[in-house]
Write a structure and sequence with these properties.
Layout (H helix, E strand, L loop, with lengths): L2 H13 L3 H5 L2 E8 L5 E3 L1 H13 L4 E12 L2 E13 L5 E15 L2 E10 L1
Parallel strand pairs: 1-6
Antiparallel strand pairs: 1-2, 3-4, 4-5, 5-6
Length: 119
Amino acid sequence: MEFDLAVDRHLTAIGARDVDAYLATVHDDVSMVLPDGTLLNGRAAVGAFHRDWFADPDWAWELDLTHSARVGDTGLVVYTVDYHDLDADQKPYSMRYLLSLVFTRVGGDWLLLHDQNTK
């Protein structure tokens, strides 16, 4: 699968809030850094986070591609994200951050290896 198609498949799964489709794009040794600096390691932890996030119907995001590169079996995309959600008191809030996604090619598939969210 081509790198650009793999990234699109990954982001489409997130937009659809489809955990199974999302996990099909994720490497077993994935790591994820949340905007608050929390580090999640491994498919189970990252999958559990996404199950909870996808269950929240209130969030929306807009992505603007900032950078893309591919070298051998490694691919990187960086997006500027405008994120909108409701807090625990149901008050709207917004956040702007950078989303960096690093993929590795395993056989014919590109799988997410690292997800970094930086305010």
